Amino acid sequence: MILMIPRYEQEEVVKIWSDENKLLLWQGTELAVIKARANSGQIPIEVYAEINAILMQNPIDITIWKQLEKDLRHDLVAFLEERRRFLPEDLKLYLHGDGMTSYDTEEAAFARMLKESISVTTGEYTELQEILKEMALKYRYTIMNGRTHGQEAELQTFGKRCLTWYKDLQVSFENLQRTTEALKYSKLSGAEGNYGGIDPEIEKEALAILGFEPFYGATQIMPRELYAPIAHALSQLVLSISKIATDIRLGARSGRPIYQESFGKKQVGSSTMPHKRNTISAEQLEGMARLAKAFSIALTENIVTWEERSIEQSSVERVAWPDLFHVTVRSLKTISKILENLVVYPDNMFLEIVDSRGNYASSNAKEVLKEIGFTFGLSTEDAYRILQLASFNVHEPGRKEEKLRNRPPESFEESNELLHIFQTFEKPTPISIQYIIPKGKLRVSSRLGATESDIQRWNETLKKIFQDTKNLNKWNKVFMPSYILRHEAVLYEEILEQ
Amino acid sequence: MILMIPRYEQEEVVKIWSDENKLLLWQGTELAVIKARANSGQIPIEVYAEINAILMQNPIDITIWKQLEKDLRHDLVAFLEERRRFLPEDLKLYLHGDGMTSYDTEEAAFARMLKESISVTTGEYTELQEILKEMALKYRYTIMNGRTHGQEAELQTFGKRCLTWYKDLQVSFENLQRTTEALKYSKLSGAEGNYGGIDPEIEKEALAILGFEPFYGATQIMPRELYAPIAHALSQLVLSISKIATDIRLGARSGRPIYQESFGKKQVGSSTMPHKRNTISAEQLEGMARLAKAFSIALTENIVTWEERSIEQSSVERVAWPDLFHVTVRSLKTISKILENLVVYPDNMFLEIVDSRGNYASSNAKEVLKEIGFTFGLSTEDAYRILQLASFNVHEPGRKEEKLRNRPPESFEESNELLHIFQTFEKPTPISIQYIIPKGKLRVSSRLGATESDIQRWNETLKKIFQDTKNLNKWNKVFMPSYILRHEAVLYEEILEQ
Amino acid sequence: MILMIPRYEQEEVVKIWSDENKLLLWQGTELAVIKARANSGQIPIEVYAEINAILMQNPIDITIWKQLEKDLRHDLVAFLEERRRFLPEDLKLYLHGDGMTSYDTEEAAFARMLKESISVTTGEYTELQEILKEMALKYRYTIMNGRTHGQEAELQTFGKRCLTWYKDLQVSFENLQRTTEALKYSKLSGAEGNYGGIDPEIEKEALAILGFEPFYGATQIMPRELYAPIAHALSQLVLSISKIATDIRLGARSGRPIYQESFGKKQVGSSTMPHKRNTISAEQLEGMARLAKAFSIALTENIVTWEERSIEQSSVERVAWPDLFHVTVRSLKTISKILENLVVYPDNMFLEIVDSRGNYASSNAKEVLKEIGFTFGLSTEDAYRILQLASFNVHEPGRKEEKLRNRPPESFEESNELLHIFQTFEKPTPISIQYIIPKGKLRVSSRLGATESDIQRWNETLKKIFQDTKNLNKWNKVFMPSYILRHEAVLYEEILEQ
Amino acid sequence: MILMIPRYEQEEVVKIWSDENKLLLWQGTELAVIKARANSGQIPIEVYAEINAILMQNPIDITIWKQLEKDLRHDLVAFLEERRRFLPEDLKLYLHGDGMTSYDTEEAAFARMLKESISVTTGEYTELQEILKEMALKYRYTIMNGRTHGQEAELQTFGKRCLTWYKDLQVSFENLQRTTEALKYSKLSGAEGNYGGIDPEIEKEALAILGFEPFYGATQIMPRELYAPIAHALSQLVLSISKIATDIRLGARSGRPIYQESFGKKQVGSSTMPHKRNTISAEQLEGMARLAKAFSIALTENIVTWEERSIEQSSVERVAWPDLFHVTVRSLKTISKILENLVVYPDNMFLEIVDSRGNYASSNAKEVLKEIGFTFGLSTEDAYRILQLASFNVHEPGRKEEKLRNRPPESFEESNELLHIFQTFEKPTPISIQYIIPKGKLRVSSRLGATESDIQRWNETLKKIFQDTKNLNKWNKVFMPSYILRHEAVLYEEILEQ
Predict the structure, then answer these.
(1) What is the pTM of this model?
(2) Which of A124, A359, C62, D465 is the most exposed place for a label (fewest CB within 10 A)?
(3) The CATH number, out of the four listed (1.10.1200.10, 1.20.200.10, 3.40.640.10, 1.20.1000.10), of the domain defined by the range B12-260+278-348
(4) CA-derived radius of gyration, chain B
(5) pLDDT per residue over D211-235, tens digit each?
(6) How far away is chain B from the Cα of C352, in angstroms, using its nearest Cα?
(7) Chains interfacing with B (3 or more CB pairs < 8 Å)
(8) Regarding the domain with residue range C12-260+279-348, which homologous superfamily does it belong to in the CATH classification?
(9) Judging by DSSP bridges, how do beta strands D213-214 and D185-186 pair with one another?
């Protein structure tokens, strides 16, 4: 049985949620019950031995099972009929005997499928974290602009960004682990959970054989409150992955990508534009997140049923659980592959910092100015406004650009021409706030409120402050990466060495 | 390619969304473009004739296509390579020529798949409505308790309930039809929708061949704003269906079902409780609604993409569109089957009305009492409170029941005994508000605020009022089904005879 | 500031999420940082003492804060300006000093608001569970039909149903508790989480003052992976509540309600139908669940942001967190009120069992028949089919009903007449499967496949079997509530006595 | 009554959904019914005149209404009580008479609130589209890199991007308009929609007074199938807005923004980093989209109710409709404000094109090479691969960069030093594919599969081809903006001049 479309399905997940596996697990429950009854002396021990031997020798025939289901309109009863074919009359009544209800058989099997799927998920997660750990170490000293609101912010290392990705995933994974607490339990307590059939003692023993403890307080089924958090946790894991994928898409934007997805030597980027190197895998992960959220929403609704249960939840679970695992496992594999092969451009990271014109240190610069400036009469507010003005000053447009901003081209001919002009445009050497502030070279900006006289006062004070070499050294120090990043080590220690 | 799990998949939908069909529709777009270019004189007419003949003679080989896709990581380019295998060198450049981008080829194909799927949906919807129409007519005079808040309310016919189901579906279906307005359009306007490749004129002609008009304002793709309402409309249709299914579940509750799902002669109700006749199909429709909502949510998110497009939407669409149609078509078929074979119990509907003890007419009774009572000094408020009190009075428990309500059994032995007693319990003949009000037989109820003296006053007034036979006749008339339902005909006329 | 509509808002929640409280908590963070710096010797201890004294003496002025925010377009900076009004120049730079970023101040405050809200939630949950516990004990021996698929199933007690409600809530609440693990942590690690400002040591100390540990691996903000599970857990708790509410609505359906919401003595059921006693509170809880799910979905999306953060999450959190808590706390209070005042009808529970005509024991009856019947040549399959046939037999319609089922009324006059007839309809004394099976009184049912000859064979065998009084006693025993419910005690022990 | 948090609420929406307005609209329904009854001769015409006069003279007292609601637990009945205070006894029974049910009064009022809110929405939408239209015209010739997958793609104008935004919004708005078809209808057909009270004729007349037609097929309420599409359409409109907001965030990323949100002269960008100019308004719109989706999901669930209705939908509607309109109207206003004040940098758009090194024309270049190259033996595949290789060649890193990519820095000291070096780094003059292809200067790229001998063959052929000036001219033409964008005019015509 294939659940997800072949394009996205994961072989391990297909296997776990196959009819073959499900029926085998159903048989597992049935045999555990018989064994428990035999162990407790309720039935002769030979009964178990015989039934076990017969069923093991006769594999389940899926085709016959499907045929029977059509008539009976009941998959579990069809399974029992298929199995009873091989049992002598006097053993038949032991199979699914003692007032067992279908979901007595099915619940443990279902929980085992969840467990197996989570184990596959855990395996993939572990590999992914290994990759991120290596990246964090490899780029331990590769500095880059951190970005908040998409804007150049303070300096950080690329290794540290990898660490935050690592940690996001860890939070989501630990959350997933907590939700699997629910999988400790199962039930064999009959049609309404009050042991109309099987005794509590037999339940305990049979469940122990299958690796579970009894859940006291079930109805015909386990409450779906137990499983909804697992679905949500899986969707959250995919969301964490898609957050990383978004960061990769953002970093890969041309013209000056800081990293890109790897590109196959024979790969084709676009059917029409041969130069394209698209972040198609990362983008797909956004699609995966949309799907994962949807499946989680549907599975959460399964909590509500009527009284001692009705069967609304079943069709949702047949579709959404395996599909959610397909999506999760595929997402883990995809992001691992993207990261493992990520083409990283430290050169562009450096160039980006240079282009920030000192702003990468504006926070520390402001603090040092506040501190030194205080005795020179600069207020906290002044320090802030000086840094802000300087950051606008270093990005002030030239005359040609200014003009263009005020009057965009008015014909394509003008555009042709402008393109020609810009092709030979020489960028002025970038000036930095590190330089203009100590020199007192602030200028009026049309986009900020500071007046000519404010600025004059500031410039004079600044010159006075930085005549003192001690102050200037203090100032220059805050622009050194090694200074700014002096505390990043603690993150490595705390996150990777736990 | 199988998308939905076999249990729920619909053959027609499988076919439409198969790779085979998709690639055939891609070829359709490619040929339409070549034809349009030939028609306009841009390329020789023989080019089209030749290419068309060759491609028609050489069916698409899905296996080779899949193989090519693995290397190229681009499904459309893989398709072109597969097709070009059969073309002589000088014809190759015409296939997907003129700067076409992948989505030029794919969008029209995609819209056609949506159209075909909606056409299947429409067919199933039409059959369903025929069934409901017949039911409405068959049960035109079968009276029943309407229910609001699950409580017996006024009288209606079962035919009328069928009409409201019919109408709910109609509203949802007409909404679906309105959303398909979007499927008039497609695009061939190149990598960014500004005709970098194909001319606007060629686009118009090629799209006309495929049954579309150009959408001006596309990017690389059609905006997903066009399709999200379709997804929502489909999920809404399934919700309307699940509303009907809920009503069937509610009516089928034992002890006195008013209708039930049919039950196969060999069917098995429960693996452990042989007497069960469960509403499993109706319940499954609640599950289908959960899935439909989820798919619609995921598809709606596809509206947001980056700039001239990125490819987040693709994976969602591959999974969620076909699955949403599987769910919709299956839901339509299931509810049709349930309704077509519904076992209806008019006898129980009558018994239910009798058990409402006249309350089925309480609204009309109140109105007539207000009207007649006015000249006898009964206020609007009085009339209301009299009817309320009477309705409590007719359901007042006997002494035995009262006692039990105050003191539930305190051991299972007591329960055993009580069960024995209740087995021979004779229900008192039900009294009706139709009788006790004109007789002035209201009594104090511990559960309402009316005082002994209020009630005495009311009883006396009531007796006075109903001494007049004219008033009594008026009173009795409002308890006649034919009177209460005198206006239902207008619904039949307006709904069925449009 | 009022968030939820007044109708649904909860005073405690309003208070926690008010601007007043938020700003006070921001001040709390600021003071903790200054204190920590003082403790570590980074700044003079008097600085903390002075600032603390001044700020405590000058309460925050919300009006001024709002005014400042308009100009600055930054709520945290506006808050700092408002606070700095009272500080002498030399102390100003210590407030929000050392390179702190806004979210350094806000994150701990936010986590504290979550903690406080969850504490309110916990209080309401605890009261609710006390009510359910009492109900479980009060109705320890009040037997009722369990219902699966809305159908009479096996016997249980109403106390046990209360226990399963209790347990569902417990599962959801323990899940909520597990998610609050996230609230152990907060951050003061600066604009990108790498301690550009505050030292790791100062962070540790300041957070300890506020009751937190540092979260290593934050960006500018705490990852929203920490909080999404809390939102989901809250919505799940409301879903568990709405499941109970649904059960109450189902049990309250007229004609023979087993319980009802209490009804105020002056209450009005419907503006037009005075007899109505609607389950309006329980129905509202379904609405609350719809809202809770929606808020949880929105909050889960907050996981994805760009790089070191952008601010998409903020507007969602301002609205959805308080609203989700309003909905949760209100739902807890509403269900508590419904349950505390629930009007329970044990008499109707007994009558319902009687009307099930022995089917309440069909599972146990089948098991005993399988066991006894085996030596008489009855197969497992026979036993099942006998019970199924008997259960159909005891519900076989009379001739009058049969006729009506085949030919519904064809005019309202006919309906009038039929209603009259049914008003005096005498129900035949119910027969039970407990009786007809041992007597061998099975009859052909048109709705099942068993043939005349099958049935004859079965009847003869049954008579033979039950000639033996020992067998008859065994048979009758399984119809005794005390027998069927012999194991319910274990649920009470395991659930209530933990 | 305040619904949304003050931060986001919209005054017009507050007013429409206020209790004051709601009660006034309820009174409107009541009066319309009385007037219709009077018009039809059912009651004396003076009755209407008198009641109308009295109610108009006595404004509704909200405080009293709220008090009454507490006792009665029914808001509509409380309203009637408040109104009846002013009516003489003989007129009282006409108010809400003739068997009207609460929702007869409420449905028309509710639909009118929806209509009014949509009218506010339409007003804001219209203003937004005016702004976009102006932008489209202003930037009619301002060329920029289109971007697909975040990568430089073909050339377009910024005006054209504005046009696609305009069109996206138009599609969503026209969809909204289609859904309002539902607001043509209302109902006065009583407790179950079958005219137990008011006659069909009176309904028709009364609804006409209020501007509606009767909806035949209602239950107690209008089916929520009518309104769910409106909610979805509103959320879709917000999604379209958030798509534009995302594009703005992407374009505003530093280092070379192509546009930015405007920034107040006194504005503060970050509490710690003075240089920040964050896209906070655009980011907030992503949050608004999350909220809008959530409200739409909750409102869609309202379709399902029980039988002739229960009241699950009410609480959802009280919260989610006004909040959805707050979010929608606010989003429209915010995006209008962002766009109206958007700071556009045509200079940076040009620089971006230059940096694409000719790739902006790669699609057209490939087509022309295919066409010219054919007679020189270049296959379609060759043409594609040549363009791809050239595009890699022009971005090949220098030796210094290459080295850094292979060996990232291994200490912060190294980083310090590298930053120093890069600060004086001179970028080599960019070479373009426009130049290297005709010159036959392709080189091996380590990242693509083309071999040395392939490339040699290609280079020779290329040189041969472009010896012919005619071919070279053809080639150069496709790099001219005026050529590439020759068809954009059709978009302006079709979109703006309809």
Answers:
(1) 0.96
(2) C62
(3) 1.20.200.10
(4) 33
(5) 999 999 999 999 999 999 999 999 9
(6) 7
(7) A, C, D
(8) Fumarase/aspartase (Central domain) (1.20.200.10)
(9) parallel
